[in-house]
Amino acid sequence: MAHEQLVAIRTFMNSIEAELARSALEAAGIDCMVLTDDAGGQEPPLQMTGGVQILVRAENAPDAEAVLGAGLQDAADHEER
């Protein structure tokens, strides 16, 4: 069985933003995971040094980018109103 290659498609400044992106991707049917090095949640300030990444399968990366990009466009449209 071949291992799936995971790629980081976005890096966020904190886990809250990353979890919102994860929710959007999962709602679109794209499996993903959040990767952070914050000592298991004991040192949240460490998130600011390396960020919090969203990982998806390499073959899902274009679709995941489209989902997250659409969310950014929706937010920009809302702010213009």
Produce a short descriptive summary.
The chain is an alpha+beta fold and 81 residues long.
> What is the overall number of helices?
3
* Main sheet overview: 3 strands, antiparallel
Share of helix, binned:
40-55%
Show unreliable segments.
73-79
Strand order within the widest sheet? Answer: 1-3-2
Describe this structure in words.
With 81 residues, the protein is α+β, with helices and mostly antiparallel strands. The protein has a single domain (6-80), classed as Hypothetical protein rpa1041 (Alpha-Beta Plaits). Helices cover 46% and strands 21% of the residues. The protein contains 3 helices and 3 strands, in the order βαβαβα. The longest helix has 20 residues, at 61-80. The chain is globular and about 30 Å long.
Question: Which descriptors apply to this entry?
Answer:
81 residues; alpha+beta; Alpha-Beta Plaits; 3-stranded antiparallel β-sheet; 3 strands; 46% helix; globular
Layout of secondary structure:
Elements lengths: L5 E7 L2 H13 L4 E4 L11 H4 L1 E6 L3 H20 L1
